[in-house]
Amino acid sequence: MxxxxxxxxxxxQELTTxxxxxxxxAAAAFIVRHVQTHYGMHDVAVETLYVxxxxxxxxxxxxxxxxxxxxxxxxxxxxxxxxxWLAFLHQNDxxxxxxxxxxxxxxxxxxxxxxxxEVVYLMRALPGRPMHQPTPAAVxxxxxxxxxxxxxxxxxxxxVVGSLATWQSKWGHREQLRHDLEAAPLVSQALLxxxxxxxxxxxxxxxxxxxxxxxxxxxHVLFDGTGxxxxxxxxxxxxxxxxxxxxxxxxxxxxxxxxxLFDFAALKLALQTYHRLLPFGDSDRQALKAHFAYxxxxxxxxxxxxxxxxxxxxxxxxxxxxxxxxxVEATEEALLGEG
Length: 339
Hints:
This protein is α+β, with helices and mostly antiparallel strands. The chain has helices at residues 11-19, 24-39, 79-91, 136-155, 167-171, 174-181, 189-200, 242-250, 264-277, 282-309, 314-329, 332-336; strands spanning 2-4, 44-52, 54-61, 64-71, 99-100, 119-124, 129-130, 209-212, 221-223, 228-231, 238-241. It folds into 2 domains: 2-124, Phosphorylase Kinase, domain 1, CATH 3.30.200; 129-336, Aminoglycoside 3'-phosphotransferase, Chain: A, domain 2, CATH 3.90.1200.10. Helix 6 (174-181) packs parallel to helix 10 and helix 10 packs antiparallel against helix 11 (314-329).
């Protein structure tokens, strides 16, 4: 069994304090019993444990690959809304994982009564791997898939209410970002000041919204030889503002702990492709740099523990800061391909 901790978490401590599981071996034994008992599978083995913000196990069950995900109740207080939405996406050819119903018909079970991560569900594995070479074709595939996802979110008739994903909710935590980054040795303090000034100058207001993925980073979008073959970590889907998917996605890396994969040309291509197919309104355009500023600061905050733990590098921090500096320097027209 492989054990991966992309954010440098202490695995034993995380399993014990968050999930009530004494060790990786205890977690694996729990997962095997859970799948056998509730899904009627027999030959079950855990191949990899991913200990991140949430616990995920890649497993083999009766000869086929699956993932068992422990998702946060606080991130999705109404999971009964989530799974019909995922089924709707699947029916509309969005390559999200197929979630299996347990033998009693439930989409998810809650076997960890004392943990917040007690929304536990089983899904089929998807083919492909995250983008590692941002070719123009791959970048456009990514932007077009985000547009399709957001359009379907607007057409979906039911509520999907998870975590807060709005500018108003983010703006209220701006001082915490300042506190977390103002003494960070790898973070440019000039960049921090500039980013916070952009955020302060954009007071809370509503922006274009739909049902968003919630974590549309490149590490959660899988490619095969022809295009996008899968989208994972969709349990954070929620009614939210489109910029959350877009800005965090365009700044992200091919792995959770990596710095920005896109260079400035690729970021512009993705942004312009999205804007051409799903045009930004006036308020979205005017706040675009502030949205990138907030996403940059949160991305940097997530990268720093990985540098300490050795799962990320100083270069990851530097390229993310460089990309943001280029976004800020460009005109709105240049970013959107209207110059």
